Amino acid sequence: MNRVQVKDLIIDNDKPFTLIAGLNVLESKEITEQVISECVKVSKELGIPYIFKASYDKANRSSVDSYRGPGVEKGIEILSDLKDKHDVPIISDVHNEREVEIVKDVLDIIQIPAFLCRQTDLVGEIARTGLPVNIKKAQFMSPSDIENVITKFKSYGNEKLLLCERGTSFGYNNLIVDMIGLANLKSYNHPVIFDVTHSLQKPGGLGDKTAGRRKNVLDLAKSGMALGLAGLFLETHPDPDQAKCDGPCALPLSYLKEFLSQIKSLDDLVKSFEALDLE
């Protein structure tokens, strides 16, 4: 098993899960501070390893009028300040090779968006940083397709790889999570992260933006984490109906502690079981 170390955190399918949580995209200073503060507080209270996530730019929105965020220069400055203030590792997504040089000295993990996971030049530029990388499996890819991405990434001399499930296209405007496929991702011997909130999307479901099914976030999180995974990826917001991006999928921040308490109990139970090597 290829464990991934981020500062003093060890991310591994067999260890207690790591939480990657925060905002879909950086919003106001007040909202961002509220979210990171609550995530830090709750994760410490529950003893859950924590990494803060927020995008500085959403470059793949449906509508030209969609909010994109502060951009890479301003955004990475904000993320650097949050990292120093709260003493937590930071992850954000990179959309092109130019951004890599700007972000590599601030981010602790670089994320490759699902739509870009097969972009050879981008994968190579990110891999060459030597940083841990969270690669999201594209919605149009099968679990077996990810093997080519893994091979490509490793060809640049970096094995610090997390594999992230975020749902699979199922007809128009819908995603599903194939639990057998999610379990099969573990066979590649890299930590597997489950992005539960993006898996709840209904892409283009509101015409010019994404719809979602946040009322099912606990159901889906329990289903995925019952497989014994390395981490849970979660987006949360104080008022999801007013969120500037993907609010229909976000967990209301007020539910964070109870939500994570249940997931931690499940994770602890599942990882206490003896594995069965079934043929």
CATH class: Alpha Beta
Can you count the helices?
8
Strand order of the largest sheet: 3-4-5-6-7-8-11-14
How is the CATH topology named? TIM Barrel
Relative helix content:
25-40%
Number of β-strand runs: 15
- Approximate strand percentage: 15-25%
SS content category: alpha/beta
Q: What is the second-level CATH architecture?
A: Alpha-Beta Barrel
The figure for the number of domains is 1
The radius of gyration is 17 Å
Task: Give a short overview.
By secondary structure, this protein is an alpha/beta fold. It has helices at 29-46, 72-86, 97-103, 120-127, 146-154, 179-185, 217-225, 256-270, and strands at 4-6, 9-11, 18-25, 50-55, 90-93, 109-112, 133-136, 161-165, 168-169, 175-176, 192-195, 201-202, 211-212, 231-237, 251-252.
Descriptive terms for the model:
about 280 residues, alpha/beta, TIM Barrel, 8 helices, about 20% strand
What does this protein look like?
The chain is α/β, with parallel strands linked by helices and 279 residues long. The chain has one domain: Aldolase class I (TIM Barrel), CATH 3.20.20.70. It has helices at 29-46, 72-86, 97-103, 120-127, 146-154, 179-185, 217-225, 256-270, and strands spanning 4-6, 9-11, 18-25, 50-55, 90-93, 109-112, 133-136, 161-165, 168-169, 175-176, 192-195, 201-202, 211-212, 231-237, 251-252. The strands form four sheets. The protein has an eight-stranded parallel β-barrel with strand order 3-4-5-6-7-8-11-14, surrounded by four helices. The chain has a two-stranded antiparallel ribbon with strand order 1-2. It has a two-stranded antiparallel ribbon with strand order 9-10. Helix 1 (29-46) packs parallel to helix 8 and helix 7 (217-225) packs parallel to helix 8 (256-270). 44% of the residues are buried. The mean pLDDT is 91.
